[in-house]
Amino acid sequence: MRAVRLSFFQMLAYMKRDMMLFAACLVPILAGLLFRFAIPAAEAALTDWFQISAIISPCYALIDIFFAMLTPVVFCFVPAMISLEEADEKTAAYLFVTPLGKKGYLSARFGVPAVAAFLITVILLPVFKLTALSPAAILLFAAGGTQQGMIVALLILTLSSNKLEGMAVTKLSTLMILGAVIPFFIKDNLQYALLLFPSFWIGKAACENILIYMIPAFALSAIWIYFLLKRYLRKM
H or E segment at 182? Predict the structure, then answer.
């Protein structure tokens, strides 16, 4: 545990030296303020302008789950970029054979940030949400979002060789969370074309307000994480 703690603090020290990564940690709060205040203001202005009852508000639940996924994606993106730097410098492989070990390294780089992302999401989501979410929904969406963050981080690590490639892969890997959009706009069976995307089921749970859909979301996320983690370890 001491080795994991020291390795995690080492990662934080590295993050402080890279202002881009440090600034990324502020994104959830800035996005939360935008979602909570700018979007309702835009909705009021648009409905008044076009003289209709709703324009953006039918998608408020979608915005909430996007926020639930955004925070973990950001908090898992940062250690993924640091891990790419360590892999490029060959220090990650060295850490694997120290008392820290593979499990300790993964705990420090992904386990602790994922837990932090979950807790921060549980705190921030009730503050910035646009719809009425029960405590159970907040916990489930935060957990589902945390899994999405881990998937994005592992995709970055498995498909990238350095930080430059990692930035490009980040843009592609975040498409994973866009599956949540489908249930809100496609109502027929065509929507199930993306059923292997965990975010699709998160979106379906939010769109239909049926939390049981989070079960396939968790199961599929676990499968994605398992296979991506195996590939990452083989790569290392």
Answer: helix 182-185
Q: At 56, is the secondary structure helix, strand, or coil?
A: coil
CA 1 to chain centre: 25
Please classify residue 132 by burial: count the beta carbons closer than 10 Å to its beta carbon, then call 0-12 exposed, 13-18 middle and 19+ buried: exposed
pLDDT digits (tens, 9 = 90+) for 133-149: 999 999 999 999 999 99
pTM: 0.88
Contacts of 185 (CB under 8 A, 6+ apart): none
Please give the structure tokens belonging to residue 209. 């307000």
The count of domains in the chain is 1
Domain that residue 231 falls in: 2-235
Amino acid found at 221: S
CA separation for the pair 39, 117 (Å, rounded): 24
